[in-house]
Specification:
The protein has 338 residues and is of the alpha/beta class. It has a single domain, classed as Alkaline phosphatase D (PhoD) (Purple Acid Phosphatase, chain A, domain 2, 4-Layer Sandwich). The protein is 22% helix and 22% strand. The protein contains seven helices and 15 strands. The strands form three sheets. A seven-stranded mixed β-sheet has the order 4-5-8-9-11-10-12, with no helix packed on it. A six-stranded mixed β-sheet has the order 3-2-1-13-14-15, with no helix packed on it. Helix 7 links the parallel strand 8 and strand 9. The radius of gyration is 19 Å and the shape is globular.
């Protein structure tokens, strides 16, 4: 056994216990942080996150890089992430909730045919310290919802599972393209679609944050995205237009960069935003690269980053400021969600 392995085992054996601040509450949220794509062996930026005093942290996937069918190995990666000293500071001061994407799911770009998704779910929920009686443990997949605040200052957070039920991606044979459209494929599966509709129907929350591992609005790149499954993308747009939840904002990760996307949706009184924040530990090698996105607002940020949502409740309607923060906490880009 290598010395580094001995060290990891010893570290995990004697690591301090972790106590998350758990669960939704009636407290009004004004500062929410989120992010994705964190390699457990890379330099972390948790000090910058903690310094901004978030009241909630949301994982949007690739919380570790496992890419394995071995649950024991996956657990060791989660344990290393969970016991990072700077991450410990964050999770002992604010609640933590989250969803998976592909590398923590266990298979790069994986979908419903990944053979260890049941074991992978258990490891994610263990990492997040999800209680034994939580509703997420009673169904397949890891989709979940949380409500914070009360009265007119209520926020509902809906975390979608875009892995456990997703149909197969169609690989492109065209040079320079990764995937093609799957015209009949689905992302969420019927049970999750029904659950989502119930969560949105007659919701009295003032803000609805919808977490997705992959981008929803941006549709011109050829990597993973909702646009690879146009029926699912349109179904979610139609659902939002019909149910009209107050101030819906999509939060996404996956791309190793950050950007804001905005689109007009027939039936919604205000524009729909997709706030992408990725990655926490790594980004594109070429900082000057760009890619087309007709819905982008502001510039694309190629740097290590995390997202912040600042909510001002002082007016008749809440005002949400969306900020992209860099590895030392600096604001790299920000807009109002209006």
């Amino acid at each position: 056994m290598r010395a580094t392995t001995h060290y990891l085992l010893a570290f995990l054996l004697f690591a301090p216990s972790v106590t998350y601040a758990q669960g939704p509450s009636s407290n009004t949220l004004t500062r929410i942080a989120f992010g994705s794509c964190s390699k457990q062996d890379s330099a972390q930026i948790w000090k910058a996150v903690t310094a901004l005093n978030p009241q909630l942290w949301i994982w949007l996937g690739d919380n570790i890089y496992a890419d394995t069918h071995d649950p024991k190995l996956m657990r060791s990666y989660y344990d290393k992430q969970k016991h990072n000293p700077d991450y410990l500071q964050l999770i002992n001061t604010c609640p933590v909730i989250g969803i998976w994407d592909d590398h923590d799911y266990g298979q790069n770009d994986g979908g419903k045919y990944y053979s260890r998704k049941k074991e992978s779910k258990e490891e994610l929920l263990r990492f997040l310290d999800v209680p034994a009686d939580d509703p997420v443990r009673k169904h397949e997949g890891v989709y979940s919802s949380y409500t914070y605040g009360k009265g007119r200052q209520k926020i509902k957070i809906i975390l979608l599972d875009t892995r456990a039920f997703r149909d197969t991606l169609i690989k492109s044979t065209v040079k320079g393209r990764k995937y093609e459209v799957n015209p009949d494929g689905d992302i969420l599966g019927e049970v999750q679609w029904e659950w989502l509709e119930k969560e949105l129907t007659n919701s009295d929350a003032a803000i609805h944050l919808i977490g997705s591992g992959v981008q929803f609005i941006s549709n011109e790149h050829t990597n993973e995205k909702w646009g690879n499954f146009p029926k699912s993308r349109q179904r979610l747009l139609s659902l939002l237009a019909r149910l009209k939840p107050s101030q819906p904002i999509i939060l996404s990760g996956d791309r190793h960069m950050a950007e804001f996307s905005r689109m007009t949706v027939d039936g919604l009184p205000n524009p729909l935003f997709d706030f992408t924040s990725s990655g926490l530990t790594h980004t594109w090698a070429y900082k000057t690269l760009t890619e087309p996105n007709e819905h982008r607002v502001g510039k694309m940020v190629i740097a290590k980053n995390f997202g912040m949502l600042l909510i001002d409740w002082s007016g008749k309607e809440p005002v949400v400021t969306m900020e992209i923060h860099g590895p030392t906490g600096e604001v790299l880009e920000k807009i109002l969600a209006k």
